[in-house]
Amino acid sequence: MSIFSNIFGGGEKSGASSNKNNNINWIPLNALEQLETIKEQSKTESIFIFKHSTRCGISSMVIKQFEKLFSEEHQRLKVYYLDLLSYRNVSDEVGYTFQVQHQSPQLLIIKNGVCVYHASHYDITQTELSRFL
Question: What pTM was estimated for this model as a whole?
Answer without folding.
Answer: 0.83
